[in-house]
Amino acid sequence: MIHSPYIRKPASVQRVMGTVLLALLPGIAAYVWQFGAGILVNLALASAAAVAIEALAMQLRGRPAAPAVADLSAIVTAWLVVLSLPPIVPWWITLLGVAIAVGAAKHLYGGLGQNPFNPAMVAFCALIVAYPALMSQWPAAGRLDFATQFGLILGGARELDAVTAATALDALRTGMRGGDGVDLVVSQGGAFGAAGGKGWEWVAAGYALGGLFLLATRTITWHLPAAFVAGLALMSGAFWLFDAARHASPLFHLASGGAMLAAFFIVTDPVSGATTPRGKLIFAAGIALIAWIIRSFGAYPDGIAFGVLLMNICVPLIDMKTQPPVFGHRGERP
Amino acid sequence: MIGRLFGFRGGIEPDAHKNESAGAAIRRAPLPGRLEVPLRQSTRATARCIVRPGQKVLKGERIGDPEGVLGTAVHAPTSGTVADVGRYAMAHPSGLETRCVVIEPDGEERWIDHAPFDYRNRSRGDALAWLRDCGIVGLGGATFPAHVKLGRGEGIDTLVLNGAECEPWITCDDRLMRERAADILAGALILRDLIGARELVVGIEDNKPEAIAAMRAAAGAATGVGVVPVPARYPAGGEKQLIRVLTGIEIPYGKLGADYGVQCFNVGTAYAVYRAIVHGEPLISRIVTLTGNVEHPGNWEVLVGTPIDDLLRLAGPRPDTDRYLMGGPMMGFALPRLDVPVVKGSNCIICASPALFPPPMPEQPCIRCGECARACPAELQPFELYWFSRARNFGKAQEYHLFDCIECGCCAYVCPSHIPLVDYYRFAKSEIWARERDKSAADQARERFEFRNFRQEREKEEKAARLAAKAAETHARIAGEPAADAAATPSIQAAADDPKKALIAAALARAQAQKAAVRPRNVDDPSPGTQAEIDAIEARRRRAAAAAEPAPAQTSSPAPETHSRTPTR
């Protein structure tokens, strides 16, 4: 028997996921423009793998595969994995990443909606710990044509030093270790653009544009991106004001690495993130804090993925402690 | 007066579908061939039937007396003959039956004598009793007795008149306000006087400009009356939401508006109050919207008890109609059958077709997107309640304010995963209620058992005390007359000397005491025949007592058995 309400808003998980995929397109376009079309090969590869793994996992769990594949959530995960990996990683790294994300981080916990950790970030962390060398080979902007990238991805000759360059975050770290000030490192290194990494600032702008689209379509709320951006800006800004020679500016932090991708597409994962308004603020600010600490003092150039996983652990507590007051019960807490 | 509006959080804006029926003026539905008037017209109270089959009744004649605090009277909607008094299916999702009075109209529509009630020169209590006897209940759908809501005559600041009508499709209140604004307002002013409020605020959703204009015209320059358009946002017509919007006051679950100095009545109720006070007419009809997949959507003034299939003929459902909803699409329910009567709470019947109300999409996993939390007017976290209800973690669900849920359906409306969220809450609530019932039943059984033990223990103690007294008396007597009558009472004399015989004497005394103790009171004054029987039994008993050892004191041996049986009851 069907009960009220008898009318439904035309909404679906598929529509939500489709909107996210659509919102990723400006960032991907900037990626292709600055770094070549190799990323598209990875995206295609990862999408096919995600669909296959999703279907297989549903089959193994004895559930219909078609609706799960159709909800597009596996493809969103696949794209986020690809966009956080270097664009010229060998094909099997991409497949491994998708397998970890969809197969392990998602389906081992019970499929869509059940995973406590962000699947894409689980995959990223597993890969960067397992294959640190391959995972740090980032191409410089405009250096590689499509054929070379295609060859690298499918396992051709890996003349890496010729084609890769340190990312801005990496260059800054290495330079600072050498005792140079921020200004000197930036003026010497070819990795830097006007705001963040050379070329990467455009990709970051593309992600930000997509993020605004997500906000406009009410797919995400402002809390998570705002708290993440504010957290990163405040933390880096305070230290930058205190000692600009030893600390990069907030603008640099926001335009570099995965900051914009994270702000609008990673920390906004509803399944593994905090859900209450205040909880979202705490969750995203926590990620920003951890990311900044790892960037500034840790062993990895970027720390967002670790920040996400660490804060994922805190989500049940955050949600429990930040339940908003209920209508008519202001001043009480559950 | 109301200076500004307060928002309520959440809410949704579904297609209103008001235009289908809003243009149709109220028409009087023709007299049906047969009326089934349920005796249960107010919340949790069934009126006591005072008519017999075959009896003639007049229009407006009382057929059911109010019973209990929440009871209201029920009246014959037209003149005719009582054909039957019995259980018939009512308009309820489960097809529940209720006691109904079936009336065959004689077509004459002959009224009882009815006269206005001069509430200004009568006591408040009289006025409330009058409303109860006129069968006035809330016509917004919940059918809460008006006299109970009016019960508190002090501490009420504001009377809110609910003309929001926020559910899609329904237009009965809209039409009533457009056509009978003056009468509604007169009724509302009576309500205001009766409840002792200073001001009257009429809240109407801003998608009903004609109703707003009509009510404003009716209000004219009356002091302390405001007609306020409120944003059309479902569920703006929820009592607590409307009060919040108009006054800023938030009434939590389990509290009444009266606790916060504000009380709310539906416009239809105000109209019924006007009819009852000014014309002395009991509540026997209401406005019902017939709409949806029909040829002629409209609003009809319908006698309570009119069978719904008779009524539907007036609108002409199209052939592809597959369901009939009573109430709106957000909170209404599908009628399991159509041979059920209109009741005082029936505001709308929607003929549903697959095109108008598509079947729900298959349920997908919850992705915790939080859309439901943003739509919830009670500001709950519906997805958390969903997880807890699903996991049968009812304690946690209650901690997260499950019972603050008003089942408005906003969460299910917006859910991208198409989860029937409200059904999960209904399930959780019913499970909790069932457990409460089980628990109180078990508590009662345990109390009964404990009291039984206590009683047996007390009886045993009383018996011991009596025995001791008796023994002491015997000893005293023996001690008092040892020599004087030694020969006459050799056994007792011997008993005094011999411990073994003393025991026997004590046993005899105990047996006697026991006999006195078990002697039932209802044979205090028996008839001679019974007395003879009793004597025979007593004689047998004495023989048996003499033959056997003294009867042991009654033990509590049945107790364990009782104990094992009790909890399963």
TrEMBL record, chain A:
Its EC number is 7.-.-.-. The modification FMN phosphoryl threonine is found at T167. Its cofactor is FMN. InterPro entries: NqrB/RnfD (IPR004338), RnfD_bac (IPR011303). The keyword Transmembrane helix applies. It is a multi-pass membrane protein. Keywords: Cell inner membrane, Cell membrane, Electron transport, Flavoprotein, FMN, Membrane, Phosphoprotein, Translocase, Transmembrane, Transmembrane helix, Transport. It is found in: Cell inner membrane. The chain crosses the membrane at residues 12-33, 39-58, 65-82, 88-105, 117-134, 224-242, 248-267, 279-297, 303-320. Belongs to the NqrB/RnfD family. This is Ion-translocating oxidoreductase complex subunit D. The lineage of its organism: Bacteria, Pseudomonadati, Pseudomonadota, Betaproteobacteria, Rhodocyclales.
UniProtKB/TrEMBL annotation, chain B:
Belongs to the 4Fe4S bacterial-type ferredoxin family. RnfC subfamily. Keywords: 4Fe-4S, Cell inner membrane, Cell membrane, Electron transport, Iron, Iron-sulfur, Membrane, Metal-binding, Repeat, Translocase, Transport. Its EC number is 7.-.-.-. Its main location: membrane. Binds 2 [4Fe-4S] clusters per subunit. Residues 514-569 are annotated as: Disordered. [4Fe-4S] cluster 2 binds at C376, C405, C408, C411. It is a peripheral membrane protein. [4Fe-4S] cluster 1 binds at C366, C369, C372, C415. Gene3D superfamilies: 3.30.70.20, NADH-ubiquinone oxidoreductase 51kDa subunit. It is found in: Cell inner membrane. Part of a membrane-bound complex that couples electron transfer with translocation of ions across the membrane. The gene is rsxC. Its cofactor is [4Fe-4S] cluster. Residues 545-561 have a biased composition (Low complexity). The keyword Chloroplast does not apply. This is Ion-translocating oxidoreductase complex subunit C. The keyword 4Fe-4S applies. Pfam families: Complex1_51K, Fer4_7, RnfC_N, SLBB. The complex is composed of six subunits: RnfA, RnfB, RnfC, RnfD, RnfE and RnfG. InterPro entries: 4Fe4S_Fe-S-bd, 4Fe4S_Fe_S_CS, Ion_transpt_RnfC/RsxC, Nuo51_FMN-bd, Nuo51_FMN-bd_sf, RnfC_N, Soluble_ligand-bd. Residues 357-386, 396-425 form the 4Fe-4S ferredoxin-type domain.
